[in-house]
Specification:
24% helix, 35% strand, disordered N terminus, 6-stranded antiparallel barrel
Length: 417
């Protein structure tokens, strides 16, 4: 005889069991499913509850001679003991994040056409930007490449065309000739929300090993590095990470724990040529500005004064800080400034030396590039100058201080500052 009704169990047990025990028995008989959902308690707690319930049922079953309760004891083992995952919750989170993002990351492949066939070269990494098939990567990844292919996680390759490049920020935008199905663009984070110490993950193509995942933390923020273009603007606000990067990771995404892109992997500092825990990524907000202009116009527009600057070493040789004007665009906004030149004897005649922009002090050409980069196109700014009189006191250049107003204009990367 099976006891399936709570009332029957309660009636048989009322003389021997407390009210608390009766509640356990009644609940077990009434619910042919787990009493404790794994959504609310851990697997360990679930097993503890199940083991206690089994011991309790065997006890009362033996004392009352109720063989049917042995069936409930066996059943409770099945109902209360949920399957154990082979992964921790942290591992499962990382696995899910990778599986949700890997299809949006590509390996950039360069197929060089040779006399006796095609030579395939692994160039770097990239990621899908939007539903229109745009892919973002580093400029140095696609520089001087002939035929570009983007290879997805399913190992299908699709030809790409170059939309535009931003040399100063080392950003390039490609577009797939044919967009594959079932791929979605990466989610983009907010650079202002990035914090030192948060987890950071790289997905890329290190040394040709496609779709490799590495992880670490954000080690530092606001790093300044030399720009990729000779004499170009410095790369500012770079993200430093100890997530392992190697050649081939360039252009791939640096992502946070939710799978959103916080930066684009740029370079590593290494004495061995491999990862040594010092990698850098371009903040995604910087990438956004470049990509939006490249998609819309095919080029970027930078604020400029229409000047060419002299190397810092010239001013250092006379013990002066600032940015020395080498040449001035006669049709530019700063045509009132004076450039440098050589006299008949081959001596350098100094032009204007910029020592301030608005309220920012200028001690070098990098300072000036940084200050102008923060200005808006069309903005009128005050320049604080040291203007040479054309006379020297020994080796010293005689100067006087003056302030002029200049309107900032826009330029493409191919023009001067």
């Amino acid at each position: 005889m099976f006891l399936t009704r709570p009332q029957t169990i309660a009636r048989l047990c009322s003389r021997r069991l407390s009210h608390k025990h009766l509640s356990y028995v009644s609940a077990l008989a009434a619910h042919p499913k787990p009493l404790y959902s794994s959504q609310h308690v851990s697997a360990f707690e679930n097993r503890q509850i199940g083991n206690g319930m089994q011991s309790f049922l065997r006890l009362i079953g033996g004392s009352l001679g109720l063989g049917s309760l042995a069936w409930f004891a066996a059943k409770s083992e099945i109902m209360c003991d949920s399957p154990k995952s082979p992964f921790s919750s942290e591992e499962q989170r990382i696995i899910s994040m990778f599986e949700n993002t890997r299809n949006s990351v590509v390996s950039i492949i360069n197929n060089e056409r040779l006399m006796f066939g095609v030579h395939t070269v692994s160039a770097g990494s990239g990621f899908l930007w939007d539903n229109e098939g745009h892919i973002v990567t580093n400029y140095h990844v696609i520089k001087d490449q002939t035929r570009l292919l983007a290879t997805f996680a399913d190992h299908t390759s699709h030809e790409c065309k170059v939309v535009g490049v931003d040399v100063d920020h080392d950003v390039a935008v490609l577009k797939l000739v044919t967009k594959p199905e079932n791929v979605v663009p990466m989610k983009l984070a907010d650079s202002e929300q990035v914090r030192v110490g948060q987890y950071a993950y790289c997905i890329g193509n290190p040394r040709g090993l496609d779709h490799t995942l590495t992880h670490g933390i954000v080690s530092a923020l606001g790093r300044e590095l030399p720009g990729p273009a000779a004499g170009g603007r410095p790369m500012m606000n770079m993200i430093q990470t100890d997530a392992p990067m190697n050649p081939g990771n360039s252009g791939g995404p640096l992502i946070n724990s939710s799978g959103a892109v916080i930066g684009m992997n740029e370079m590593i500092f290494s004495s061995s040529g491999g990862s040594e825990g010092v990698g850098f990524a371009i903040p995604i907000d910087t990438v956004k500005v470049s990509v939006e202009q490249l998609i819309k116009h095919g080029q970027v527009v930078r604020p400029t004064l229409g000047l060419t600057l002299a190397p810092d070493i010239i001013l250092k040789s006379i013990g002066v800080e600032g940015a020395l004007v080498a040449q001035v665009d006669g049709h530019g906004p700063a045509k009132a400034l004076k450039g440098s030149k050589y006299d008949r004897r081959g001596n350098l005649v100094f032009g204007d030396i910029i020592i301030g922009v608005k309220d920012m002090e200028i001690k070098s050409t990098s300072d000036l590039l940084r200050a102008i980069g923060l200005c808006d196109v069309g903005e009128v700014v005050e320049l604080k100058l040291l203007r040479p009189t054309g006379k020297r006191a020994g080796r010293d250049v005689v100067v006087y201080e003056e302030t002029v107003k200049v309107k900032v204009i826009g330029r493409s990367p191919k023009s001067s500052l």
